[in-house]
Amino acid sequence: MLMFDWQPWTALLAAVVSADGKVDYAALSDRRARLDAVVAALGAASPVSDAAAFPSDEHRLAYWLNAYNIFTLHAILAEYPISSVWKTRDGQFFQRRRHRAGGRDVSLDDIEHEILRGEFREPRIHFAINCGSNGCPALRPAAYVGEDLQATLRGATEQFLANEWNCRIDHAARRVAVSRIFKMYAEDFAGAQGTTHDYRLGVLRFVAQHADVPFERIADYAVSYNTYDWGLNDAHRAPHIGPITFHEPVEHYAPGDAELRELHLYEGNFCNRTCAFCTINGSPDGWYQPYAEPVLDQALRSVAADGNLKFYGGEPTLHAEAIIAAMAWLRARGFRGLFTIFSNGVKAEKLLAILDSDARSEAVLNYSILHGRDAEALPEQARARIEAWATAHPNRVFQGYKILFHAGAGADGAFDRDREADFHGLGQGCVRCFPVLTSKGRFHACPFAAEVDAPHYDLGRVGTAPAAVRANYQAFRRWIDDVLDPAARSRGISSCEMCHKHLAELPLPQF
Q1: Helices of type H across 438-484
Q2: pTM of the model as a whole
Q3: Phi, psi (5° rounding) for residue 177?
Q4: Average pLDDT of the chain, as a whole number
């Protein structure tokens, strides 16, 4: 029986992978013909087209692990020099089907999600595949092979977790800080239990198993997720994570959760800026209403005590003292989770005063204003002050993503291609944010549409039982799947644009 020959790939890896698992892309470019030959070999044979060459599950798994890594390097080399896989020409780095495997056109997403995660259900694949980013596991300087693959995967996992940036157990604080990979793929480590609590335990069990620590010792520890470094894993570029990195939510929707893990708190659209893309039409002419105690009490009862409350508007720093007071009120009554403040950063001292008032708080700056793109730039003095504070307080200040949505003031906007959601692989469908509680006491299903007064979004009001609010939110998500997204696709527009222009044409969710 003729087995697939991985020796050419192993030889190439040995020539271009550094001791710390980075890639010498200049050296790889000099060996482009050898890489092309490996790609061609994968195009001609796969476990599907040539089953005899891959006699076991381990051989088949090794093929797809190698294929992912090979196709990633080939795609990067086609556009090198780049500083990140997110800065490619069309933004479809993971989605575009640019390679063949045994005669089948595949994308990197096809391999990762449909094949590796869908067919093999082996969580340790996340420490074997490398997407070309510094946050990924080190690239192995040899091919994966079917023989002893299980031991190889265990070794790769242990190596990954041995790096304190990927796993740090703080017994004094009773917290485990892990790579955001564990957040991105929580269900892979926790199984199909379906609750955030189960996901946390699944991550802790996995860490205990592969980091040589008794599970019982860390079973009640909190789990936090480190910032993911999307910088290219280039051996000639030092990794650089600036003081203000991209924000990634710490919570996600789990169908089995009995309570919301996240809730936006909205005080109105009064703002010191008027941005043409603002989803809630924020401006100095907007409205503001402070948070009354019944609203804060409703928020406290409706979100998990260790969840995430997100203050936004409008511009929260225009009422910094009220925000600080609200946060203190919530803390005094048992909220122990994370506070997030969405801000334009113009009133830097006010923003930092809010952050200084509570150690478990973070700020997310508007990308456009921070960078002066499609908006008046953040004043240099304010930027310098925030950057200095962020340097002294890592992982407390972030920037939002560059994506703009066709909602609110931006519903009719013409955006640059790289600011569209589908450019970044998010498609045109609803992004399914957690809901909102406004300072007027209304639960609204969408933070982007908080200024749209329509029954489609009405999840309840102050006094509504938290279980009913959550059930209504679940009904709203079903409506997105069954009504909103299909209607938007049929028109060839985004779901945000559908909501802001044609909502009256859609039936109500079944609350």
Answers
A1: 466-479
A2: 0.88
A3: -100, 120
A4: 94
Q: Is the pLDDT of residue 1 over 60?
A: no
Structure tokens given for 334: 């048992």
Q: The tokens of 10 are what?
A: 């192993």
**Amino acid identity, residue 234?**
D
Nearest Cα to Cα of residue 184 among 152, 154, 227, 232: 227
Domains and CATH numbers, the chain: 7-159 (no CATH), 167-225 (no CATH), 250-343+356-361+405-505 (3.20.20)
**Separation of alpha carbons 258 and 305, rounded Å:** 12
Helix (H) or strand (E) holding 328: helix 320-332
Tokens (6 digits) for 151:
């031991």
Amino acid at 46: S
CA pair distance 468, 461, nearest whole angstrom: 10
The residues that bridge with 338 in the sheet, in sequence order, are 308
Which pLDDT score, from 0 to 100, does residue 300 have? 98
DSSP 392: H
* Greatest CA separation for the chain: 76
Give the mean model confidence (pLDDT) for residues 434-443. Answer: 98
- DSSP state letter for 127: G
Q: How far apart are CA 500 and CA 497, in angstroms?
A: 5
- Categorize the per-residue pLDDT at 315 as very low, low, confident or very high, splitting at 50, 70 and 90: very high
- pLDDT class of 195 with cuts at 50, 70, 90: confident
pLDDT value of residue 425 = 76
